Every structure is written in structure tokens, then in C-alpha cells.
Amino acid sequence: MARSEAVADDWIAVDWGTSSLRVWRMRGADAQEARRSAAGMGTLGRDGFEPALLELIADWVTGAPIPVLACGMVGAKQGWSEAGYRAVPCNPLGAPFHTVQANYPGLAVQIIPGLSQSDPADVMRGEETQIGGCLALDPGFSGTIGLPGTHMKWAQVSNGVVTGFTTTLTGELFALLSQGSVLRHGLGQGWDDAAFADGVLAMQAAPAGFATALFGIRARGLLGQESPDAARARLSGLVIGLELAATAAIWVDQPVTLIGEGRLADLYAQALALHGIQAAKMDNEATTLAGLIHARALLQEMQP
Asked: How far apart are CA 269 and CA 85, in angstroms?
């Protein structure tokens, strides 16, 4: 799948998420400069996307029209222009790419479509580019790719094809429970690795006990049996552990690669290790850029 050597000419790579915008000035497969802003999809109306992009790249598009290839929430229904989905099983990246009618004459913008699954119903947007980048960086990989985030994605990959995927709302569930439930009164801001592991293993043993285990966090705190920091770690272990129990068929006995950095990716790696899985990790930005480069190469191959 590695075709970055086919990329030629100058172009601009764009990763447009819900909360941020990242751009790279590219020369072939080489990034010459990177910039970012907080102008994510969630902060913009439809008329705000082009000005937000130009604010970052105006000095890059002073000459002839330059190709711009974007991935992420920029192609969502609430984004600049809806890019649609490609149905799995399929390669993570491919036609049809969506063309945006920009007002500024120096922009020739295309958006990478997301992926969809009909049964069970699921969608992804942006992660397909990271998956494509993972496969560009590790062409022989077959197994499971996990993408930690507010909405965790588990993608099954075989011979360069995404055969299926599953999304969980684990990050959002943790936020709701830790900020909007009675548990919020007893949670600290620190951490306790043992309590996290206990939560993961409790769900491995008895996932049906999730609801009662949640109130157990409250009861331990009231009885002085657990510190607020341990309570926070236990809650995280319970929600991640419940997710792993629900998705075990996807990752058990499979090579697993996690795409992400920071604390959340580390927690998933720790939780998987408790199940006997030693997951590899790839950098979020590196896989995104590798996916954009690969998609650009595909576009160039399609040109007459």
C-alpha cells in the first residue's frame, strides 16, 4: 500500500477535526511546514470553513491554484461540504473523492470520504485516513487497529482491506459519569494504577455487573475505603474494561496496533496487556499525514 513515492508537485494536506485544524505545506511526499489552529468543525458554520483555512495558508496559495486534500470532520454533514461514505469491505482510502467548490481561486479542494458499515450500522470519518496511513507505514499488517478517542474505533484489517469496524462511546460515557452523575462528588484528579487494573479485570470477569460496580465506587468513597484518585482510576478501568469485554471478538488472538498518543492510548495498552495482548502503538499525526500522502498518490494515479 505504500505509494508515497508516487506523489509529486506542491499541495496542501489538511486534517480537520471537531476541535482543531492542522495543515501541512507539502512538496511531493515531504512536509515543508506545518501549522494548526483551534478552528475545528465544532466552532464553525458552513461559511466559516474557507476563511478559517485561508487564515492559515493564505501565503501558501499566492500563485497558481494549488491542490488541497482534506480529511476528517470537514466532510461531515455539518462540515464544509458532505463527502459521503464508502461501504466496507474496502481499502481504507479510495475514490470517489469529494470536490469542494471554493470561492478563492487559489484553492482546488478535495475531501477524503469516510467509511460506513450497514450491519451493524456504523460510520467513521477521519479514522479511515489514519488506518490508511498505518497500512502505508506497515504494509504487511493484518489484524485489529484501535483508535482511542471520545468515540473509540476498532477496525479489522486483512490484506489492506477494512473488513469491518466497531465504535464505542467509552470516552463520552466516562465524561458523563465523571461530570454529570453522583460519582462526580467522590472523584479526584490523580491516579491509581491498581484501582484501574481492578476495574478492567472486574469487567473481564463479570461485565453484567457494570451498573452495580459503578455504585460501588460511590459506596467505597463514603465508607472511606478508597481515595478520590483511586475512584477516578477505577471508573476509567470499568468503562474501558466493559468496552473490551464487548469487543473481545475483534481483538482476541489478533495483532493489535493502537493509533494515538498520550494518556488515553497508554490506558488502552495497559488494559489490553491485562488481557494478554501486547499492542503496538503508532503516532496519531504520523499516521494521519501518511494517509493523506497515500490518498494524494491515489488521486494522481486517477488523473489522465
From this structure: 30
